[in-house]
Inverse folding.
């Protein structure tokens, strides 16, 4: 599968992977700053998201294979990576399939453990939108508001609305494939081997108020990544890069090596 991406800057290659229901567009701001540090930044749309192709199969192995195909197409031998949430799990799975291509790994607010499905309101809202009846963006947002009270979450989803034809709106993501495979998104990822700094540097970043990486999760993570750097961003939840962009980038710059 040929993935869509946005490219910024020149230098050492660095890929950024978004989370569930996200897209490359969500990371434009941070990507442009990171590019100024001496990186050639690629914001990737994972399969069934953004402008990348749709496919009924939606597993971490699928997404890793797509990523490896893109890396081979671009003729890269080593790449640095940042992955948020689901994108972080893709990178953890990548470390099982092709650790030799990883230069640096930044995992943003996701652990190794299994996460039970917890997007029920979002899924219900997506399924409630009928594009035969919703002819304007405001009508779509009105339906979403019946299920999702938080304006930031509604706006996040609204970024995925586009004109499929001049008179019909639609979702950019493949809602059917994602919802059908929602259990897979929470899969536990267990590394095949212990990863140390002699393999590649690993940084885990979490939000102070997020429940995705709890203190009790750290022994499991350190069991496989004993040399990891753990960064906690204060006053941030799961959307670390959006809630505390300045602190996030400052910490990232301290750890990434162009």
């Amino acid at each position: 599968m040929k993935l869509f991406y946005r490219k910024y800057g020149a230098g050492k290659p660095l890929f950024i992977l978004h989370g569930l229901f996200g897209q490359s567009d969500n990371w434009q701001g941070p990507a442009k700053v990171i590019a100024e540090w001496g990186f050639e930044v690629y914001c990737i749309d994972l399969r069934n998201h953004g402008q990348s192709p749709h496919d009924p199969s939606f597993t971490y192995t699928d997404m890793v294979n797509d990523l490896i195909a893109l890396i081979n197409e671009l003729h890269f031998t080593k790449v640095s990576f940042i992955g948020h949430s689901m994108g972080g799990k893709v990178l953890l799975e990548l470390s099982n399939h092709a650790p030799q291509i990883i230069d640096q790994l930044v995992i943003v607010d996701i652990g190794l453990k299994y996460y039970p499905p917890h997007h029920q309101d979002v899924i219900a809202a997506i399924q409630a939108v009928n594009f035969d009846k919703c002819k304007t963006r405001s009508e779509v947002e009105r339906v979403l508001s019946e299920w999702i009270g938080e304006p930031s979450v509604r706006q996040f989803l609204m970024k995925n609305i586009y004109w499929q034809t001049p008179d019909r709106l639609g979702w950019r993501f493949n809602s059917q494939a994602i919802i059908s495979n929602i259990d897979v998104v929470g899969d536990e990822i267990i590394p095949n081997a212990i990863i140390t700094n002699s393999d590649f540097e690993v940084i885990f970043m979490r939000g102070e108020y997020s429940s995705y990486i709890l203190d009790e999760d750290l022994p499991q993570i350190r069991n496989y990544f004993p040399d990891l750097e753990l960064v906690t961003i204060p006053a941030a939840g799961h959307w670390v890069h959006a809630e505390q962009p300045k602190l996030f980038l400052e910490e990232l710059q301290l750890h990434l090596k162009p």
